[in-house]
Amino acid sequence: MYKGEHSERSLFRPTRPSVPGGVTAVIPAWNEATTIGAVVYAALDARLVDEVVVVDNASTDSTAAVAVAHGARVVIEPHPGKGEAMRAGVTAAAGDGTGPGPGVIVFLDADLVGLRPDHVDGLVEAVVSGRADMACGLFDRGPVANPVFLGALPVLTGQRALRRGLFDQLDAADLHGYRVEAALNSLVARRGLVRLDRVLPGLWHRTKEEKLASPVVGHATKVAMLSIACWSYLRFAFAHRVPQAAG
User: Between residues 143 and 177, which one has the greater pLDDT?
Assistant: First the structure.
């Protein structure tokens, strides 16, 4: 987890490029008290991020309290589901406070291990600079597996930056559960936009097997989650909207 020296931002942040409306990091979270603090700190210390919003998605542990203690603004989304939590975070986002909302959103999972501020800035910068309409960050699985996950498999990741207006184009039906990630890929592809995928060095996460009551329960939950995500990807593919990876 990020172990950097966290300070009051006004005292240490260098000059940053102007992003109209600002940048908000949105972190959906369900029972992630163990890791949420380090994720919040990494996001707060990112040079291009103006605010950090954690969406407590019906947690039963101290996720919300830990997030607040580490400097995040917390909103509550009582209806379980990743898409629901992402939508709640985007709705609550204020960006830099100069407009009706942020110009760019960067989504981060709450269970990350090894997230660094430069990971966050790299995703945001790709969108702010115009090099990509959406930038996706993948786990670091090593030199053998990384090329496979980058080039041969659907990119389904919780780490992605995009403009707020692009997220707002999603159909309401696609803002449910884990289908939202496949829906974002599909939206970018059928609009003819650019998606930039990159491995974030050293990034990993606490697995379902580690987090839940037993490895068996965790594995079953992970299989169910991946099944939903992959079925959503196939559904878009059959609709002739296959997401295309961009280098």
Answer: 143
